[in-house]
Amino acid sequence: MNKQIFYSIIFLFFISCSGIQQVFQLGSPSDIAKDIDGNIYKTVKIGNQIWMAENLKVIHYNNGDVIPNLQDDDEWDNGNGTCCAYDNNASNTEIYGLLYNWFTVNDIRNIAPDGWHIPTDIEWQVLIEYLGGDTLAGGKMKSLGTIEGVNGLWVGSDEGTTNESGFSALPGGYRYNSGVFDGIGTNAYFWSATESTGGTAWHRYLYHGNSVVSRYDYGWKQGGYSIRCIKD
Asked: What's the number of CA atoms in the CB half-sphere (13 Å) around residue 171?
């Protein structure tokens, strides 16, 4: 039996027993996302969209140029593309991916895997509407388990958390434009490719205490957020 079919059957059995409604299917082998560094990401089909189910962690643009990893707080806010691990701790990368500023998102050298792209503000909203709207989608997108329960990464969780979308959002925190880190365990920030004003861009925000997905453009493009890509 094809491995993808086998795992899909196992998954369907699990959600049937758990009472969770299925709104997605596992990405097929043809939907594999592989970046220029050779990292391979799990994928998931939600509605008519195919998303990466893990945060991006590439350290090169697609032309081979290195994305600067700026650890010093004073260097972070420099108006150029940058990336970093949360708290400059490389061990966080494997789980949470990297944090990128918006100048990296918008760079013509591109950081998305071939055949994928950074989602626009509209593409984010299509996902959220499919999952029931801004007030419900967050619970369907957040990974399961809590730090307190020793079975997850979120600090506490609202009762609406089911991850029934398979998006598996992680509380990877963020980096202020000042270079200070905050929010690991409680916040998940994701860039869109859509600019709002000259100094800001749209992003989505999930919080540990509710099922809301918030849409914001406050904060500056120098902020460090996680990235999920969507298939072309």
From this structure: 21
